[in-house]
Amino acid sequence: MSITILGIESSCDDTSAAIIQDGFLLSNVIANQDVHKKFGGVVPELASRAHQQNIIPVVDLAIKQAGVKKSDINAVAFTRGPGLLGSLLVGTSFSKSFALALNIPLVEVNHLQAHMLVHFIKEKNKENQIPEFPFLCLLVSGGHTQLVKINNYLDMEIVGQTIDDAAGEAFDKCAKVIGLPYPGGPVIDKNAQLGNINAFTFSKPRIKEYDYSFSGLKTSFLYFIRDRIKENSGFVKQNMNDLCASIQHTVVEILMDKLIAVSKKTGIKTIAIAGGVSANSGLRNAILESAKKYQWETFIPDFKYTTDNAAMIAITGYYKYLNKDFANQDIAPLARFKY
């Protein structure tokens, strides 16, 4: 008998619902919120209101696209955290009500674990490559940067993480400094492909062992731009592509140095990346170049799985369902949620 999981994601500003059946993705619907662009970042109150408007039509469409009935669904998996509390509350409340109405299990999912389990989503009529355990995953997003050793679907060990800002946040803040729109990461990536990575040099932090830090890099970039503008008011416009290429190269080098070090220490050569910044072309190229140099087997997610989506929630819920790891109806969302 098939196991069908409805996944619901509402941790930030994307409302998403997906159906996974026996590990295969049947549908993955995402409603984006463009309202935040003019504010230069996500406004929590606006995000939660938009989730309330979007969640019912998104879930309804996901079920229809999957070609299943509500009665076919065996469990509801939802993002409990981490994320924006108001946004999480919408998804949690809907999921609890849906599960209660159908008398089916409720499965809580850690958003970060789900990002890393995208590599286990299977699609029909496609050659699905699945990493073998254990493997290392570099999780890089706007809010999180972690190096994780994955021993099993639900057994993950953080080897290193940022002690302050995330890599994605560094991209966005540096983009803002040079007048690029939000979200700045993709714009930096686009411009970087036309620039010289060695045009400017930015200092890299010296953090012990395998942790990361990006707050100092943001500050040094800000001061660098401030000083150059004093000398030449047109500096940024004249050097936009080189600035983007140089800052992107620096961030990627910081990420890769730690990943390579952990791989050497553990002997693990199965390497994956995940999260929104895993869409960055500089990081993807660096992973592929390192794969040749260090004989890695690498797993890079499809672009559609790099940003927040419910498919990753559903696949995580699928494995938790097999493990009979269910939540109670009194469960509450958590803005900060460790695993």
Give structural notes.
This protein has ten helices and ten strands. By secondary structure, it is of the alpha/beta class. The protein has two domains: 4-127 and 305-322, Nucleotidyltransferase, domain 5 (2-Layer Sandwich); 135-304, 2-Layer Sandwich (Nucleotidyltransferase, domain 5), CATH 3.30.420.40. The strands form two sheets. The protein has a five-stranded mixed beta sheet, sandwiched between helices. A five-stranded mixed beta sheet has the order 8-7-6-9-10. A hairpin with a 4-residue loop joins strand 6 (135-140) and strand 7 (145-152). Helix 5 packs across helix 8. The two termini are 31 Å apart.
Could you outline the blueprint of secondary structure elements for this entry?
Layout: E1 4-9, E2 15-21, E3 24-31, H1 44-66, E4 75-81, H2 85-102, E5 106-110, H3 111-116, E6 135-140, E7 145-152, E8 155-161, H4 167-177, H5 184-192, H6 215-231, H7 235-238, H8 240-266, E9 270-274, H9 281-294, E10 297-299, H10 310-322
Parallel strand pairs: 1-4, 4-5, 6-9, 9-10
Antiparallel strand pairs: 1-2, 2-3, 6-7, 7-8
Helix pairs in contact: 1-2, 4-5, 4-6, 4-8, 5-8, 8-9
